[in-house]
Amino acid sequence: MNSVYDAIIVGGGVIGGSIAFQLAKRGKRVLVLEKDRLAGKASSAAAGMLGAQAELEADDPLFTLANRSRGMFPALEKELKESSGVDIELVNKGMLKVALTNEQAAGLQNKIKTQQAAGLEAEWLTAADIRKAEPLLANALKGAMYIPHDGQVSAAKLALAFTKSAEELGVEIKEFVEVCDFLTENGVITGVVTTVGEFSSENVIVAGGAWSAFLLEKAGINLVTHPVKGECFSVLTNRPLIEKTIFSDGCYLVPKIGGRIIVGATVKPNTFNQQVSIDGIATLIEKATRLLPAIKGTEWEKTWAGIRPQTGDGLPYFGEHPACKGLFIATGHFRNGILLSPITGVLMADMVEGKPNQEWSAFRLDRSVQPIFS
Amino acid sequence: MNSVYDAIIVGGGVIGGSIAFQLAKRGKRVLVLEKDRLAGKASSAAAGMLGAQAELEADDPLFTLANRSRGMFPALEKELKESSGVDIELVNKGMLKVALTNEQAAGLQNKIKTQQAAGLEAEWLTAADIRKAEPLLANALKGAMYIPHDGQVSAAKLALAFTKSAEELGVEIKEFVEVCDFLTENGVITGVVTTVGEFSSENVIVAGGAWSAFLLEKAGINLVTHPVKGECFSVLTNRPLIEKTIFSDGCYLVPKIGGRIIVGATVKPNTFNQQVSIDGIATLIEKATRLLPAIKGTEWEKTWAGIRPQTGDGLPYFGEHPACKGLFIATGHFRNGILLSPITGVLMADMVEGKPNQEWSAFRLDRSVQPIFS
Amino acid sequence: MNSVYDAIIVGGGVIGGSIAFQLAKRGKRVLVLEKDRLAGKASSAAAGMLGAQAELEADDPLFTLANRSRGMFPALEKELKESSGVDIELVNKGMLKVALTNEQAAGLQNKIKTQQAAGLEAEWLTAADIRKAEPLLANALKGAMYIPHDGQVSAAKLALAFTKSAEELGVEIKEFVEVCDFLTENGVITGVVTTVGEFSSENVIVAGGAWSAFLLEKAGINLVTHPVKGECFSVLTNRPLIEKTIFSDGCYLVPKIGGRIIVGATVKPNTFNQQVSIDGIATLIEKATRLLPAIKGTEWEKTWAGIRPQTGDGLPYFGEHPACKGLFIATGHFRNGILLSPITGVLMADMVEGKPNQEWSAFRLDRSVQPIFS
Amino acid sequence: MNSVYDAIIVGGGVIGGSIAFQLAKRGKRVLVLEKDRLAGKASSAAAGMLGAQAELEADDPLFTLANRSRGMFPALEKELKESSGVDIELVNKGMLKVALTNEQAAGLQNKIKTQQAAGLEAEWLTAADIRKAEPLLANALKGAMYIPHDGQVSAAKLALAFTKSAEELGVEIKEFVEVCDFLTENGVITGVVTTVGEFSSENVIVAGGAWSAFLLEKAGINLVTHPVKGECFSVLTNRPLIEKTIFSDGCYLVPKIGGRIIVGATVKPNTFNQQVSIDGIATLIEKATRLLPAIKGTEWEKTWAGIRPQTGDGLPYFGEHPACKGLFIATGHFRNGILLSPITGVLMADMVEGKPNQEWSAFRLDRSVQPIFS
């Protein structure tokens, strides 16, 4: 098989799906290659928080990008529902980043000021305010940063909506096809070698999450990325216990549509092993109960884990291979893959179309980074 | 436990959920008792077709009711999404009731005329028209009745949306609680006896689907109902093969959001056994392939079965026990439980509030019916 | 349908299966009626401990019976494997009933003496002995009662082996058939009424576990039984962490074949709700970790719950209805249903054949018992 | 991580497990690396037939090997049960290779003669004989080759028994670790590079099934192998419909312990896609029903698919890399991986220990083979 595509995307997760969708909207003929099932790894494991303000500091190079990406969700929700029928279950009821200690409280109050100065909405809730906003949260909380615009979506539905919308626009998707190598001629990409043959294209975008690094080595790129396991569990409630997403150091509670709360996530570096440990679950239950004692009475649903791609400096990689024209990379989203997927799609489509942007320089592949885990 | 409720609903399926939702909207304090999990039986097994015109003849006493219920879905979709967050996945792309023989074609053309005379939209598609509207359908089709307003929803999502919305309005729901008997005083209901104690109310509504009859026998009502098993399977497609629901004698194909097609359903009377037989699957595959040859290339997903409550004359039972004031029944929806759930909720809430309606006389409990299966 | 059977067994769990197997071996024509799937409730939820000495005191009327039943397993393992092919996964490596406090230690040492006096094997292990026998157990243990003959089986496999062996011997089994009422004539049973019609027999044995009581009420028997939920979870290990079953107050660890450890079980009375709570899981993880710290590193597998039938005095009911000849009952096995299933099968077969036994008088239906839970 | 092992086995399926078990029995320190879950691919998908005589012709170089491997199962069953507790569910009730046409009948009669001449047991059953042996088989069968010693096992249990037994003997197993490359020095293997670091050993055995080829390319070996998908489904029966395995062109029926019949398997070359198609299921149902009409009344259980490694000449590859000392390969077992696993384990352990054997020359890596699928 030797078809010609305008672009081949390696990876059928939420990042690959978003890029495919954007390229297809621009009239490109696109092929997506996924080595297993679509959205079968981190994309489906994510809790779907859009914590642009909660997760990042205002001076982080990713901050502006993350906020811009978050802002794309309301329009995207409508667009994807229309093109694919899939509801991404966007919930826009805000996030509470809570303080369990006075020190954390001071830190959050500082963070609020900086973000307000940057023109973003955030406010301090006292313990009394919290009791009014979320009466079932623990009394011991010292206060919280309330972020009205950090919403959440269904990660699996978002990934599905991207790929179904892409398919509606003509994108071809092949599951269970693994890319083994790249084809190049004189420093220019010409296609990929896969487990079922070769496919030709002058543009190949690697969006393989934590698995990207191994593939890229074949093209002579040695990106510093770490696979970081995150374990989660979910519970089912009758009437909702919380309305907003609750975020604290080491534990978040995301109230999903239909009565589910997702509790996440541990941070276990340097492993691709997707098994869930008793240790991880015990820690999460303990932390969740400290935030929301009423969770003890809910129904256990299930556990899972995902492997997230972390980089040496915490920033994703967006860029073209310096020595191989047409080979693009979008990985290293760590815990923000869902949040960053809309902007990543647009950005990578721009790159493929030759519209690079100075703004992205912080994410270029050849920046100098150090491993963060030994 | 001995609380007082304005109404107790026995059955946590789509009918019980709809009634609970309507009663709660009217300010009633409601308790729903479900012997297993919510929507665990026929409500989740249904394909979700809203075939008011496809399934019924214009002179059927249910016809007007069914069309009115179908008409409630667009507003309900918004209302339920707002109150519960749940998208019921209403798809309004119409239905094709196809003819495989000239005889069927003549019958359908007749049906179209009668329905047009009754003021409803329906039109005849020739084989050539079909090829334009649904190019992958079999060439052998003789034509089809096109019904633009017979849509479809996700049955499981609809049931979830009803119960979540009801809970938001204060309805109490208990799963794994089985009603063993009724409490009455001088021909007036006063409550129910369950596996975990008694609950008091002056209104008890039995909405237990095929399981209703056994419970009602305890109250001296001998309704003629038959449990009828329907077996289904589903496939997954990449790009959609069909846009509209395809309906033929003994087989329908319902294209769901996200790339799934539900193929249903067999009709196996007089059993509560929810096992799926090889025979049933073989028959469905054969019929589905005759309608849509391209289905052969799709991915197998899964099988399931549901037990639907059929009555002796094919009409549901809506009414109050003639000898027990306050004991209401809503069952016998057979293959139209999803379609009829909105109107059933309103109707039963009216009855509980003492607003009976002449229109419902065809469905009263004491009408004379004969068993249809021996 | 109106066939004549020598006996009808109501309940397709491990007790019903054992009775069916024994009756079939004696040449009886037997029908088993199960309202859902075979062994779908407590029989499959059990951890399969055969804790005759661990669970019971020497002066308990059940003690002798339990030890006799335990002794039947080795022969049964061979017999069932031969007739059904199913391996019940009997593991005979003993049990450690551990002491976490000095008080528990004293109690166990006493228990050992009493049991030794009764001629049974049991011995005291010091903390040092434990470290030799099970090096990964917690250092804090004060000692343990070692019971070499309290083994364990796969509960689900045992139930399957009974029913498959029974079927090989000609027993007829119907799933998804619920018994609604009994047929009697002049105080003699003549059959049962079910959701799919009547079945005739002069012997009906109710073996419905926690669900037996509601059925029996119809026959005028008011047994004092309580449904008691037990929640469990399981983990997967590579090399085994423990060899013997570890038993302590409120938590046991059962090392199953193939690398699974079952951790159980909570005790939540008066509910038929089979949902697992976060609370229950948190408690079990805490207790399991206190016994076996290394369990923290294992892989989470799953959770489940079962509803066990407890009686007012803790003893099962074995007997014939005093006012209805031919109606037999075998229920109330609480946490010992797996252990007691072999002897229950023999005992009930004896009763049906009119061979009552003075020994069973402690378990007769008309003894006086008080509710233990309010 | 940089430990030293006597051997590293790449692949945790039934072949890797058998090799690990044999090496461990010889006192070797072994590491097994599996990129996903143990036995997660073809090993668990297999129906477990031991069709040494049914699948192969007497003049096939594999014939003797296959019969020797089959003969190892009874002893292996006991050995594995003892060391791991796992019952591999060996059923030794023979196989019927049936003829649907007179031509097939003639072919089978010929096959019987050849095999009898080779000293193996096999006999011709007439249609009447078949009716006695397996009364529910179709009347239309022309006769069958009865092979008393072609038994069957549970493939998943066999794989589990190998790895658990290996672990008991000290073998270390790592799941979710993918081998990316080999380490060599002067044409001698020194270890492997994986997704979580390097591991050292002077012996590396690749047993990765259909996935082996891609890995081996890195070591400069270009084996002609094809991934061939096989789709299956299973049904559940009450009393057994058949006792023996039924084998025909394009369809087999394997009656498993506990009431399951596995129906397999399609042959779809050149794909790693493990999805099951409607087409495949439809074909299997049709063929199964032609052999065993009564299967129509059984209960549908589930479907699955596995990817089997086929080679250009149909023979497996057993051998050492001609240019890289210490790098061994065992793959290409196609539909006979379960059957050949015992002998493969012994053979590869011999090779690692430097005990090559003239007998294996037919399977050496450098033989000349042609692709069979274009």
Write up this protein:
The structure is a homotetramer of 374-residue chains. Chain A is globular. In chain A, 30% of the residues lie in helices and 26% in strands. Chain A has 2 domains: 4-76 and 155-224 and 312-363, FAD/NAD(P)-binding domain, CATH 3.50.50; 93-149 and 226-311, 2-Layer Sandwich (D-Amino Acid Oxidase, Chain A, domain 2), CATH 3.30.9.10. The model of chain A has no long low-confidence stretch (mean pLDDT 95). The N and C termini of chain A lie far apart (43 Å). The relative contact order of chain A is 0.20. In chain A, strands 4, 5, 6, 12, 13, 14, 15, 16 and 17 form a 9-stranded mixed β-sheet that branches. The first copy, chain A, has helices at residues 14-25, 42-45, 52-55, 63-71, 73-84, 102-117, 127-133, 155-168, 212-217, 278-291, 337-352, and strands at 4-5, 7-10, 30-33, 95-99, 123-125, 143-147, 172-174, 179-185, 188-194, 197-201, 204-206, 225-236, 245-248, 251-256, 260-264, 268-269, 299-311, 317-320, 327-331. In chain A, a hairpin with a 2-residue loop joins strand 8 (179-185) and strand 9. In chain A, helix 1 (14-25) runs parallel beside helix 8 and helix 4 (63-71) packs across helix 11. Chain A binds chain C through residues 235-236, 275-282, 285-286, 288-289, 295-300, 303, and chain C through 235, 275-282, 285-286, 288-289, 295-300, 303.
Our Rg estimate of chain A from Cα atoms comes to: 21 Å
- Percent of residues in β-strands of chain A: 25-35%
Report the principal-axis shape of chain A: globular
- Counting structural domains of chain A, the number is 2
What proportion of the residues of chain A is helical, as a percent range?
25-40%
Structural class by sheet pairing and helices of chain A: alpha/beta
Q: Architecture of the largest domain in chain A, CATH level 2?
A: 3-Layer(bba) Sandwich
Most extensive contact:
A-C, 21 and 20 residues
- Assembly state (oligomeric): homotetramer
> For the record, what is the CATH homologous superfamily label of the largest domain in chain A?
FAD/NAD(P)-binding domain
Let me know the average pLDDT of chain A: 95
Give the tally of β-strands of chain A. Answer: 19
Separate helix tally of chain A: 11
Highest-level CATH class of the largest domain in chain A: Alpha Beta
Task: Report low-confidence residues of chain A grouped into runs of 5 or more.
Answer: none
CATH fold topology of the largest domain in chain A:
FAD/NAD(P)-binding domain
Report the end-to-end length of chain A measured between terminal Cα atoms.
43 Å
| Main sheet overview of chain A | 9 strands, mixed
The string of secondary-structure elements of chain A, in order, is EEHEHHHHEHEHEHEEEEEHEEEEEHEEEH
